[in-house]
Amino acid sequence: MYNFDFTRPSTIKEAVAAIGAGGQALSGGQTLIPTMKARLAMPETLVSLTGIQEMKGICTNDAGQICIGAATTHAEVAHEVAKSYPALSDLAGHIGDPAVRNRGTIGGSLANNDPSACYPSAVLGSGAIVKTNSREIAADDFFQGMFTTALEEGEIITEVKFPVPQKANYQKFVQPASRFALVGVFVAKFADGVRVAVTGASGEGVFRWTEAEVALSKDFSAATLDGMAAPSADGMISDLHGTGAYRAHLVKVMTARAVVAA
Amino acid sequence: MPKDSGIGVASKRREDFRFLTGRGKYTDDVALQGQLYAVMVRSEVAHGKIKKIDTEAISEMPGVRAVFTGEDFSEVGGNPAGWLINSRDGTPMREPKRPVLAHGKVRHVGDAYAAVVAETLQQAKDAAEKLAESAVIEELPAIVDMAGAISDSENRVHDEIDDNLCFDWGWIEDNREVVDKALTSSPHVTTLQLVNNRLVPNAVEPRSSIGEYDPGTGEYKLTTTSQNPHLTRLLICAFVLGIPEHKLTVVAPDVGGGFGSKIYHYGEEALVLAAARKLGRPVRWTADRSESFLSDAHGRDHLTTIEVGSTMDGEILAIRTSTLANVGAYLSNFSTVTPTFLHGTLMAGPYKVPHVYVNLKAVFTNTAPVDAYRGAGRPEATYSLERAIDKLSRELNLDPIEVRKKNLLTPDQFPYTSPVGLIYDIGNYQNTLDKAIELADLKNFESRVKKSKSNGKLRGLGLSTWIEACGIAPSNLVGQLGARVGLYDAATVRVSATGTIQVMTGAHSHGQGHETAFAQLVASKLGVAEDAVEIVHGDTSKIPFGMGSYGSRSLAVCGSAMDRAVDKIIEKGKKIAAHMLEADEIDITFENGNFTVNGTDKSKSFGEVAFSAYVPHNYPLETLEPGLEETAFYDPNNFTYPAGAYLCEVEVDPDTGKVTICSFTCADDFGNVINPMIVDGQVHGGVAQGIGQALTEQTVYNEEGQLLTASYMDYTMPRADDLPFLKVDHSCQTPCTHNPLGVKGCGEAGAIGSPPAVVNAVVDALNRGGHAVTHIDMPLSPHRVWQAMQG
User: Fold this and answer.
1) What mean pLDDT is predicted for residues A110-123?
2) Chain B contact for A246, CB < 8 A?
3) Where are the beta strands (DSSP E) in B653-702?
4) Which of A16, B78, B126, B635 would bridge B488 by S-S if both were Cys, CB 3.0 to 4.6 A apart?
């Protein structure tokens, strides 16, 4: 690790100013710190977002959406939405290990948009809204490819607003070594239709499997998927842990399991 | 009432208190006044010519005290292979120099070609990074694939070796034609090609070394993560740096696991000593996890074709194997004996097979050195054999259990001289197999298959009946076979005036619980409390000599040396007691800690005799020296032969290919057992590593020689939730006939017997599920199993 300066602002405004001045935002640090330890990143100033009270905690707004402060840890989400949004709680409760869950935050995970991270599938699958210091971004617009998001330079996520579906479930098939998602599928059934969001599989990051959404919106059952082809393996990640064809196959398997478990 | 101390009792491990409360003292915990930090500069390419290393570029950087390159060590010796292997044509193996730091060429990713020593670790890292940036290394084509390497005379790992071949070994060469004929005339021949996957040892504690030099006395001290401090001292003194052996102390304090990887001497150890001498200050180095992946000696990495000839009812007639074994870029100390004499000699397994021939070619590649790893050669032999017998059973439509029963040696056939040169002294392989079958509740297996099926899962059963050879010996025989060291061990038993006991052993404990088991051994023999016995290990200044711990030798060899030293103590004690009791020495019996005159109630306790030895007021000084301390060296006259039967039941998820191990049963014969709890733990650990090899651990170098699995993000260690509850039994005991303790060794068994049991179970599950899969190479990751099911 190289030397760096460290600041810990207490308001969003101060944080945005510090980042605007060239600082690197640091939330739970579950990606950034290991990268720095390996000397693969050398930020001059880290701007910790963990001291900003307005970015923490969970509440339900008038529209019935669950609003999660961006600096809220996975462990807190797992605990606090266990009744109000069990599928989201279950997802958060199975990210990494306890140490990761006690440090890592939802905002950090979404801003990083690791193609194998769990949270992006919940956000996209729920049709959530990503709120930043300057605007609100719909999930469908937020994720723009592997490690790429709609965030502008210096823009930070402050909150995520989740509509609560009638039924939902997340199924993760883990990459054996890292235990990130080799394929993770978040299925959410709303009154106006079903959303199916897939993480881990695509070189473009999280995506919606629209064919399955159409079919499941008509008939929300695993049997609906039986006759369907798995999504195309084109563009799927192919690596030591699985070919694109295997991942495509797992998307279908995990989707069916999520439907059954929802 | 159960015994609460002594042999056969599950005494709690006394060392665990310090380990579990953070009081263990490992090399990196040693802090020294004035210490400097070394950082190794490692090659980022697999193969390259070193054109320029600009040490001047960093000499003025903050804190930098010295920079070393291969040039600085060009005058000193190389780190040698411990065993000379001759090829089939009688020519000696090719043995290129393994320098302290790469000189002229780098030969694998992670090959250290320079070292920077600075006041702080950060300064050393900064300077090392700068040095690496300015170094000019001309990349050469990487030699990674073994078959390609030996057919390529253009690209050479070592310029002087035109075909990258270290040796081409035949065992036993004189039997080659007879075996060929036996196979040709066999009614059935099963052929199987299999990969024994390369493993990264991944000890919890990374390697670490601290060098010290005292200019006042000319004495050196090396504190290091070693399983084998005396061998390390010998190699450094006699081969590498030429330090007089009496001027170097090597200390291996608490060591957090080794699995073989810390047997060997590594260049970093010589580097810190040379740097300490040059700078007159202690110099320390500790690997980070990435360095461990790149530079620890890896394990296994065989590509084997095995042919098994049999009758149509499964009687094995002949076995022939042909193997390519990767030795990596340099010969690590045991890299040449591991794939030969620890592998080829086991190829008959526990079976009565008339004809066996093993051919093995050791190949240099631009990868990390490969050496002994838990089991060392014997897991490779067992895997080939047990997979092939399973395939044979399937091809002949025979029950694999029955095929094994048909071929297992029977108790009346011992001692048995195998066609590959070993003499098995004793065993009862039917007993362990029957025990495993009983414990695994095999009679209800079919109902479990049905239950799995109703849950959408495919269930399968896998068996392996295995044997190994532990406590490699005797020295005169291994010397004839090419060993450059002896394989005896030593112990000193030092009794104090108050009757407490220190035992100095050449064994080294890096997780095995020696401090407990050896104390049990000595205490029970001397009839004293276990607490009165302290085991001292890992320090060449305290211990007479030793060959360290590996190959499941500690109890069988070092324990036997200890037993002999205790015998000498008792012998001397009898003389002292006879004098004290005014009796004749031959009338003295030692039992339960008392020296008694036969047929009388006259006796002296061990403590009284010890006191008299050190306060010799009433003592036969004319004929006997005072003091009570004895040393024994023990050189076994044969290997020991633990054996057992492992049964594994798995479920395969046909939708994902994921394998779940439902149950795993081990019935082992380790001979006599000192501490059953420690033995259980050794088997648990070994099986965990074997399951890791079978299901999860995969070491991948790409065509450029880059290690793709160089961190835990991609290298899959087995975790607790990958493992079932293990049923472990070692009640079947045929005590070893040739060592005084009747013990055989248990450290490697789990890692030897388990991989084929797991793979056999998965193949069985798939076949029961209608997938005609004959073989899947390890590790059986979900992806590989799924692919196999796709046909």
Assistant:
1) 97
2) yes
3) 659-669
4) B635
pLDDT number for residue B3: 65
Domain boundaries, chain A: 5-162, 167-261
Structural domains for chain B: 18-140+204-257+262-295 (3.90.1170.50), 302-472+638-789 (3.30.365.10), 488-634 (3.30.365.10)
Does B709 reach chain A within 8 Å, measured CB to CB?
yes
Q: What is the ipTM of this complex?
A: 0.96
Most A CBs within 10 Å: which of B133, B696, B783, as the mutation test of the A interface?
B783
Tell me the fold of A167-261: Enolase-like; domain 1 (3.30.390)
Contact between chains at B783 and A241 (C-beta distance less than 8 A): yes
> Nearest-CA residue of chain A relative to B290?
A38
Q: Name which of A3, A241, A253 is nearest B781 (Cβ-Cβ).
A: A241
Q: State in words which class domain A5-162 has.
A: alpha beta
Note the pLDDT tens digit of each residue in A30-85.
Answer: 999 999 999 999 999 999 999 999 999 999 999 999 999 999 999 999 999 999 99
Q: Hey, is the C-beta of A240 within 8 angstroms of any chain B C-beta?
A: yes
Do domains A5-162 and A167-261 share one topology? The answer is: no
Which parts of chain B sit beneath pLDDT 70? 1-3
The verdict on a CB contact (< 8 Å) between A240 and B714 is yes
Distance from CA of A11 to the nearest CA of B (A): 34
String of DSSP letters for chain A: ----EEE--SSHHHHHHHHHTT-EEESS-TTHHHHHHTTS---SEEEE-TT-GGG--EEE-TTS-EEEETT-BHHHHHHHTTTT-HHHHHHHTTSS-HHHHHH-BHHHHHHHT-TT-SHHHHHHHHT-EEEESS-EEEHHHHB-STT-BSPPTT--EEEEEEPPPSEEEEEEEE-TTT-SEEEEEEEEEETTEEEEEEESSBTT-SEE-HHHHHHHHH--SHHHHHTSPPPP-TTB--BTTB-HHHHHHHHHHHHHHHHHH-
